[in-house]
Every structure is written in C-alpha cells, then in structure tokens.
Specification:
Blueprint: H1 4-12, E1 16-17, E2 23-24, H2 44-50, H3 69-81, H4 87-93, H5 98-110
Antiparallel strand pairs: 1-2
Organism: Arenimonas soli
InterPro entries: Cyt_c-like_dom, Cyt_c-like_dom_sf, Cytochrome_c_Oxidase_Subunit
Protein name: Cytochrome c domain-containing protein
Amino acid sequence: MLRPTLILGLVLAPLVACADGQTAAPPPPAASAGGSPERPAKLGLCTACHGDDGTSRTAGTPHLGGQDRLYLARSLAAYRSGERRHEPMTSLANALQPADIEALAAWYAAQSGFAGGSQP
C-alpha cells in the first residue's frame, strides 16, 4: 500500500509554480525536426538496464518505452527525493536535474513500447 506522503510526492513532484501562483505540469522538452523528442544527454545512465528504446533486456527490470510521460517524470522525481527506494535508481536519479528528468520521461514516452509477449 502506498503511503499518503508517497502519493502526495508523486502528485506534486513534477509541478512548477506559475507567475500567478498557480501550478502546472512542466512542458515536455523540445522536439526534434521529426516531431519526436531529442535524444536526452543523460540517456546513457538508463540504457544498460532499460535500453535506448525503453525495452528492458534485464530480467526484473521494467520496460519504459511507451509509458506515460508524467508517470515516468513523477517516478524519477520520487527516486530522487527518496520517496521511492531502489538503490541503483536512487543513485542515478540523484545525478539528474529536473530538466534531465523531463527529457528522459519524454524520450521513453515517445518510444513505441514493448512489442513482445513477455519480459525477459
């Protein structure tokens, strides 16, 4: 069961303050000329386990391709804040800035997703 603080952290983590005091989800990173997000500078931190296209090649590691962008951004923010705990993910997420998190979330959300029948 998720703790209330975890749920609140996942909901509020990707929000940014607007000039009028309201909050809004941050915009996705800039797209390349083809309309898909540009390859994130920090993608190399993720590819060993999650692959460039978001298809995991490691047993027990989730596929990220095609996942919801906001879900991915919130998950990375939760690892970074310590709300979600997984030692390798926490270490990697702590190396990311909010712009890196948004770029990675947009990249993996734009991938086609896992087309096979089961995870390795």
